[in-house]
Write a structure and sequence with these properties.
The protein has 203 residues and is mainly α. 55% of the residues lie in helices and 2% in strands. Helix 1 (15-51) runs antiparallel to helix 7 (185-201) and helix 4 (122-131) packs antiparallel against helix 5 (137-155).
Length: 203
């Protein structure tokens, strides 16, 4: 008898499961947005006081941030890259809101969102958590694991590599990540409930 844990999940995936995958992804992104937005907003208000980040110029702007000296990406705001290319002396360095602040921590191709809403996807949200040191280290570590082992592989999914063992391990990692997030109990219960349905019906 063949080892059932080695059978790719594509062979048993139904339209109903694919629909549930989409629904859980949307629910997870909503939870992440609710978790990320207040942390970034607090950081923005703090940097307005400490560094006048809303009044910055080319001559005087915050170039790096945090203990890791993360290099901030000013290409990503105020249409800088689109309008001025690599002529950084012409960039507008004024950060007018928390959403623009969040973009400084991401690669330019990831910043096509206008608010912490449905335009802001899981890749951007996980990037913020990983790169901004105001998030707890255990949450950053979990976010990095989710991005490298689940989110990115799933975005370019090769179903031949997704057997039941990998599928269940990913669900366990997602559940552990959800427990770390500071979100409402009702929302957390709903997400965990959806994951349990996946565990029952997704293999």
């Amino acid at each position: 008898m063949a080892d059932q844990t080695q059978i790719p999940i594509r062979s048993s995936m139904t339209i109903d499961l694919e629909t549930r995958i989409s629904e859980l992804q949307c629910a997870s992104q909503t939870a992440l947005r609710k978790y990320v937005a207040p942390v970034v907003s607090i950081l923005y208000n703090s940097l307005k006081l400490s560094d006048q980040i809303d009044l910055q110029t080319h001559q005087r702007h915050l170039r790096t941030y945090g203990t890791t000296r993360f290099y901030l990406n000013y290409e990503a705001i105020n249409r800088n890259k689109l309008s001025h290319g690599n002529r950084t002396a012409l960039y507008d360095y004024k950060i007018q809101n928390a959403v623009d602040l969040s973009k400084l921590f991401l690669q330019t191709h990831m910043i096509h969102y206008t608010a912490f809403n449905e335009t802001c996807d899981s890749s951007a949200l996980l990037g913020m958590i990983i790169n901004i040191d105001k998030f707890p280290v255990n949450v950053q570590t979990a976010a990095s694991t989710i991005r490298s082992t689940i989110r990115n592989p799933w975005a370019h999914c090769d179903f031949t590599q997704w057997d039941s063992g990998k599928y269940n391990l990913c669900l366990q990692n997602i559940e552990a990540f959800i427990h770390l997030l500071n979100i409402g109990a009702v929302e957390k219960t709903q997400l965990i409930g959806d994951l349990n349905k996946w565990k029952t019906n997704g293999n």
